[in-house]
Amino acid sequence: MASGDILLRTGSMMVVRLLDAVAATSTNNGVWIDCEDYMVGSVVTTGATGAAVTDVRAFNDAGLAAPSNATAGVAIATAGAATDIQVQITALPRWLKASIPTLGTGTVTSIAVLRRGF
Protein backbone atom coordinates (compact mmCIF):
# COMPACT_ATOMS: atom_id res chain seq x y z
CA MET A 1 0.00 0.00 0.00
CA ALA A 2 0.97 3.63 -0.31
CA SER A 3 -0.06 6.98 1.09
CA GLY A 4 -3.42 7.94 -0.39
CA ASP A 5 -4.57 4.34 -0.98
CA ILE A 6 -8.18 3.41 -0.28
CA LEU A 7 -8.42 0.59 2.26
CA LEU A 8 -12.21 0.17 2.17
CA ARG A 9 -15.11 1.73 0.30
CA THR A 10 -18.79 0.98 0.87
CA GLY A 11 -21.95 2.82 -0.11
CA SER A 12 -21.74 5.07 2.93
CA MET A 13 -18.06 5.33 3.87
CA MET A 14 -14.45 5.29 2.72
CA VAL A 15 -11.30 4.44 4.71
CA VAL A 16 -8.06 5.90 3.33
CA ARG A 17 -4.44 5.57 4.41
CA LEU A 18 -3.26 9.20 4.39
CA LEU A 19 0.30 8.30 5.44
CA ASP A 20 1.45 4.71 5.04
CA ALA A 21 4.22 3.95 7.55
CA VAL A 22 6.21 7.03 6.50
CA ALA A 23 9.58 7.51 8.19
CA ALA A 24 9.54 10.73 10.20
CA THR A 25 13.29 11.13 9.66
CA SER A 26 12.43 13.66 6.93
CA THR A 27 9.50 15.97 6.30
CA ASN A 28 6.65 14.70 4.12
CA ASN A 29 3.97 16.73 2.30
CA GLY A 30 1.44 13.90 2.32
CA VAL A 31 -1.06 13.14 -0.44
CA TRP A 32 -4.34 15.00 -0.99
CA ILE A 33 -7.50 12.87 -1.07
CA ASP A 34 -10.80 13.99 -2.55
CA CYS A 35 -13.60 14.25 0.06
CA GLU A 36 -16.26 15.67 -2.28
CA ASP A 37 -18.78 12.84 -1.78
CA TYR A 38 -18.45 12.75 2.02
CA MET A 39 -19.81 14.93 4.83
CA VAL A 40 -18.02 13.98 8.07
CA GLY A 41 -14.91 12.09 9.05
CA SER A 42 -12.20 11.31 11.51
CA VAL A 43 -8.43 11.01 11.27
CA VAL A 44 -6.03 9.11 13.52
CA THR A 45 -2.28 9.67 13.11
CA THR A 46 0.23 7.70 15.18
CA GLY A 47 3.90 6.78 15.33
CA ALA A 48 5.78 10.08 15.46
CA THR A 49 8.57 10.11 18.04
CA GLY A 50 11.40 12.43 18.96
CA ALA A 51 10.88 15.93 17.58
CA ALA A 52 8.50 14.88 14.76
CA VAL A 53 5.38 17.02 14.35
CA THR A 54 2.39 15.74 12.37
CA ASP A 55 -0.73 17.49 11.16
CA VAL A 56 -4.00 17.10 9.28
CA ARG A 57 -4.54 19.68 6.52
CA ALA A 58 -7.53 20.90 4.52
CA PHE A 59 -7.86 22.63 1.15
CA ASN A 60 -11.20 23.82 -0.22
CA ASP A 61 -10.46 24.47 -3.89
CA ALA A 62 -13.51 23.18 -5.73
CA GLY A 63 -11.48 22.43 -8.87
CA LEU A 64 -11.65 18.95 -10.33
CA ALA A 65 -7.89 18.35 -10.20
CA ALA A 66 -6.12 17.60 -6.94
CA PRO A 67 -3.82 20.36 -5.73
CA SER A 68 -0.10 19.69 -5.82
CA ASN A 69 0.98 17.72 -2.76
CA ALA A 70 3.39 20.61 -2.09
CA THR A 71 0.36 22.88 -1.55
CA ALA A 72 0.21 23.43 2.21
CA GLY A 73 -3.51 24.03 2.72
CA VAL A 74 -4.72 24.88 6.23
CA ALA A 75 -3.77 22.88 9.32
CA ILE A 76 -6.95 21.75 11.09
CA ALA A 77 -5.10 19.66 13.69
CA THR A 78 -1.44 19.66 14.70
CA ALA A 79 0.29 17.31 17.11
CA GLY A 80 3.46 18.37 18.87
CA ALA A 81 6.53 16.17 19.09
CA ALA A 82 5.78 12.50 19.80
CA THR A 83 2.03 13.09 20.13
CA ASP A 84 -0.74 11.30 18.25
CA ILE A 85 -3.64 13.04 16.48
CA GLN A 86 -7.26 11.98 16.87
CA VAL A 87 -9.59 14.48 15.24
CA GLN A 88 -13.29 14.48 14.35
CA ILE A 89 -14.18 16.58 11.30
CA THR A 90 -17.82 17.66 11.27
CA ALA A 91 -17.65 19.38 7.87
CA LEU A 92 -15.11 17.83 5.53
CA PRO A 93 -13.13 20.07 3.19
CA ARG A 94 -12.91 19.23 -0.52
CA TRP A 95 -9.33 17.94 -0.08
CA LEU A 96 -7.69 16.36 3.00
CA LYS A 97 -4.19 15.11 3.82
CA ALA A 98 -1.82 14.35 6.69
CA SER A 99 1.76 15.58 6.66
CA ILE A 100 5.00 15.66 8.64
CA PRO A 101 6.15 19.31 8.63
CA THR A 102 8.90 18.82 11.24
CA LEU A 103 11.19 15.81 11.10
CA GLY A 104 12.04 13.58 14.02
CA THR A 105 11.97 9.82 14.39
CA GLY A 106 9.43 7.04 14.22
CA THR A 107 7.17 5.68 11.52
CA VAL A 108 3.96 7.63 10.98
CA THR A 109 0.67 6.08 9.91
CA SER A 110 -2.46 8.13 9.36
CA ILE A 111 -5.92 6.72 8.62
CA ALA A 112 -9.01 8.72 7.60
CA VAL A 113 -12.57 7.40 7.88
CA LEU A 114 -14.99 9.43 5.77
CA ARG A 115 -18.80 9.09 5.94
CA ARG A 116 -21.56 10.30 3.66
CA GLY A 117 -23.95 11.10 6.50
CA PHE A 118 -24.11 11.50 10.23
The rounded distance between the terminal residues' Cα atoms is 29 Å
Query: Taking strands numbered 1, 2, ... along the chain, how are they ordered across the largest sheet?
Result: 1-2-9-4-7
Q: What gyration radius follows from the Cα positions, in whole Å? A: 13 Å
Report the top-level CATH class: Mainly Beta
Helix and strand sequence: EEEEEEEEE
Supply the CATH architecture.
Answer: Sandwich
The fraction of residues in strands falls at: over 45%
How many helix segments? Answer: 0
> How is the main sheet built?
5 strands, antiparallel
CATH topology: Jelly Rolls
Broad structural category: mainly beta
From the spread of the alpha carbons, the general shape counts as globular
Compute the average pLDDT: 93
- Residue ranges: pLDDT <50 for 5 or more in a row? none
Whole-number tally of structural domains: 1
Give me the count of strands: 9
Helix content: under 10%
